[in-house]
Design goal:
With 318 residues, this protein is α/β, with parallel strands linked by helices. The chain has eleven helices and twelve strands. Helix 1 runs parallel beside helix 11 and helix 5 packs across helix 7.
Amino acid sequence: MLVKLLEPLNVPNSLIEKLAEPIKEIGHEFVYYNEKTTDPTELAKRSEDADVIMIANNPYPTEVIDQNEKLKLINVAFTGVDHVGIADAKKQDILVCNAAGYANQAVAELTIGLVLDLYRQIAQGNQDIRAEQFSGAFQGSEIKGKTVGIIGTGKIGSMTARLFKAFGVKLVAMDHSPSPEAEGLDIEYMELDELLRNSDIVSLHVPLSPSTKGMISKEKLALMKESAILINCARGPIVDNDALADALNDGQIAGAGIDVFDMEPPIPGDYKLLHAKNTILTPHVGFLTNEAMELRAGIAFDNTLAFLEGEPKNVIER
C-alpha cells in the first residue's frame, strides 16, 4: 500500500524516518510532505493513489476525499476530527482514526496557565513593569478555595481536574458519561445550568458535535457569576464568542482565557473577542508542546501500522 503523510508533525525529520521504517520493512511505500498546505487542489494532488493518508489539524474536506478512489484510511494525528469530511468518508467505507490522548497533559497545563494569568495578570504585569509610566501593582486572586466547573470529564478534562485539585479547589462537573480517569477525584456532578451558577472557574473539555456547538450561549453566560472566568481549550464553536465578548465588555463575567476560535488563526481584526475586556487569547497552542508532538507522531504511525497489519485501532465510530 501507499502511505502519504501530507503535512509536518512538528517533530524532526529524523523521527519521521525512524517511525516510517516499520512501514517500509513490511513492504509498503511511504511518502512525506514536510510543508503545510490548506489548498484543496494541492491536497488532492498530494493524496493521489494513496491507500492511507496521514494529516494533522489542517482541513481535509469532502472535495479532496472524492478525488481518491483508492483511499482506505484517513489517519488524523490530532484529537478532534471535525476538520475532516467524516460523513463522506463513511459513505465510501473509508476508515478515520485519530491520536486521542497525546495532548492531555499539554492542554491541561495551558488551562491552568490561562487561569493563573487571568488571576495574577502575569503577561500584563510583564508589560507594565517595562513601561515608562508604571501603572501600579495588580491585586489578584488565588485558585485555592474556588469552585471549578469542568464541562466534560474525558481524559483531558480529568487531567485538568487532577491539576486543579492540587491547588485545593472544589470540583464540580457536567458529563453524561464520565471516564474512568475521573474516578477518585471527588467530583460532584450536576447539570450544566447548576454548574454555571456555582462555579468560579468554568473550563470546557468537550468535543465539537451538533449537541455541543453553541453550548455556551448568551443565555448560558448570563447564568455565570460576575466574578467567574471561562476557559476554552476545547473547540471554538462550543462558545458563542460574540456573546462572550459582550458578556466580558458588560462586566457580566470577570474574564476569559481562550485558545480556540471559530476559525484557525490568523483571526480577522474585526473579530469581537480580540477587543473584549479581561481576555487572555492564545493561537490554538493547547496541544503544541515538544513532548506532545513526539507522542502524537508515535501514536499516528502506530495507527498506520496497525491498519496495514489488518487490526485498525483508534477508529472513529460515527
